[in-house]
From TrEMBL:
It is an enzyme of class 4 (lyase). It catalyses: holo-[cytochrome c] = apo-[cytochrome c] + heme b. Residues 1-48 are annotated as: Disordered. Lyase that catalyzes the covalent linking of the heme group to the cytochrome C apoprotein to produce the mature functional cytochrome. InterPro entries: Holocyt_c/c1_synthase (IPR000511). This is Holocytochrome c-type synthase. It comes from Pieris macdunnoughi. Signal peptide: none annotated. Belongs to the cytochrome c-type heme lyase family. One of its GO terms (cellular component) is mitochondrial inner membrane. GO terms for molecular function: holocytochrome-c synthase activity; metal ion binding.
Length: 256
């Protein structure tokens, strides 16, 4: 399996199972960030039964080894840099799934380890790729949120969900033009100081994994479901056009 990851493997998450589980993946302000979930930075807001967590659309966490699992997997979880909007208005941080949780999540999606030659190192790489993709996505969200820095200087991720089979209109249009479809899609709801803003994230295959465990090309933008979001996208489109136009005039070699 190596460093290659399927669509199901990327962006899977689930909450920790210890009586009071912390939330799911993705994602902490970098100040005073704990290195593991031993600090238990946040709690799951739903009942600990077979219900679906509305904040990440995942069932309760499973840290138990699966039947016939060929090797033991770590259960430690990493705290992300992505702040979480709590129901009481406080800020905590999203927590990534452990390798064991990720393994169990892949089994729920139909993957079976006997079908592939997989090693413990592969699972470690998968988790690092998964976490790096989500960190990259949040940084892209923050670039858009910078347009509203005066009204809200601390946006937080409220909830998220995968929609791998529901291609966005832009992805479908690109496909008609001959481009590949994304291997995954997430919709993130960002709390902009009390205002919910939906973002669409399309994940495209970027080839080999780099030394930062990134391989996906991310297309992150606010959904066109409000006038404000449409206006933001128009402003950014104009800024990009103006930058490219002025850049080409100042650097004629770029057009040759």
């Amino acid at each position: 399996m190596g460093n290659k990851v399927s669509a199901e493997a990327v962006n899977i998450s689930s909450p920790v199972q210890d009586g009071n589980p912390p939330p799911e993946c993705p994602m902490h302000n970098k100040a005073e960030k704990p290195k593991s979930t031993d600090a238990r930075p946040s709690e799951c807001p739903v009942q600990h039964d077979n219900s679906i967590n509305p904040y990440n659309m995942m069932p309760p966490a499973n840290q138990q080894p699966a039947p016939d699992q060929p090797f033991q997997l770590p259960t430690q979880r990493q705290v992300s840099t992505i702040p979480r909007a709590m129901p009481d208005g406080s800020t905590e941080f999203w927590v990534y799934p452990s390798q064991q949780m990720f393994w169990n999540a892949m089994l729920r999606k139909g993957w079976r380890w006997k079908d592939e030659d997989i090693k413990p190192k592969d699972m470690d790489d998968i988790i690092k790729i998964h976490n790096a993709n989500n960190e990259q996505a949040w940084q892209e969200v923050l670039k858009w949120e910078a347009l509203h820095a005066k009204e809200c200087g601390h946006p937080r991720l409220k909830s998220f969900g995968g929609k791998a089979t529901q291609y966005s209109p832009r992805a479908q249009m690109r496909s008609l033009l001959g481009y590949e479809l994304p291997f995954d899609r997430h919709d993130w709801i960002v709390d902009r100081c009390g205002k919910d803003v939906r973002y669409i994230i399309d994940y495209y295959d970027g080839g080999e994994v780099d030394n930062k465990y990134q391989f996906a090309l991310l297309d992150v933008r606010p959904a066109m479901d409000s006038f404000e979001n449409v206006w933001d996208r128009m402003k950014v489109m104009y800024m990009r056009y103006r930058f490219e136009l002025l850049g080409n005039k100042e650097n004629p070699k770029l057009t040759n």
